[in-house]
Write a structure and sequence with these properties.
The chain is an all-alpha fold. The chain has two domains: about 20-80; about 85-190. The chain contains ten helices and two strands. It has helices at about 20-30, 45-55, 55-60, 70-80, 85-100, 110-125, 130-140, 150-155, 165-195, 200-215; strands spanning about 35, 40. A two-stranded antiparallel sheet has the order 1-2. Helix 5 (about 85-100) runs antiparallel to helix 6 (about 110-125). The radius of gyration is 30 Å and the shape is elongated. Pfam families: Retrotran_gag_2.
Amino acid sequence: MATDNFVQPAVPRFDGHYDHWSMLMENFLRSKEYWQLEELRLKDLKAKNYLFQAIDRSILETILHKDTSKHIWDSMKKKYQGSTRAKRQQLQALCMEFETLRMKSGESVIDYFSRTMAIVNKMRTHGDKTEDVTIVEKILRSITPKFNFVVCSMEESHDIDELSIDELQSSLLVHEHKIKQQEKEDQTLKASTENHPAPRTNKELCNSSIESSSIS
């Protein structure tokens, strides 16, 4: 009898970014029903096991004396969430990074969107309320010049306020594919021209013949 393959979700590893990790870890524990909503308290033994898997040894050694998973959770929060002032400073730095963000020469659409959304998601975990339309406008302003005609076309044919991030990415991916295809065809044509030079005209042949006779 056939059975469905089910992949168990991986335990989110703590990477130093507490707010993002705590959100992933809380969702993970809720999915395992080890987080009691009515008491806002972690179930203990199995929850502690998952927390131990998520935390590096160097950090774990500083919290092993904590009796319960709740105490471990609170300790991580105090150590790494930081003060309101520190979070505000981090948000300011992220906002500056977002404002100065530009698509690199040769960077793919997917890579640039991933880089942009990584910054946006960090901003949002720090309490930022940046709307999707702001992100769309930012991307349109900061992509490389080879997409300029695409940007003009989209601004004329779309209401930017109604354009979603996914729709923008999809449209740019289509145009990126066309650009790459055109570049490939141009390279093929150039290589073909270099390998097979154009035949000489009758005038060129006559001049060559006259030059040869003169030499003789």
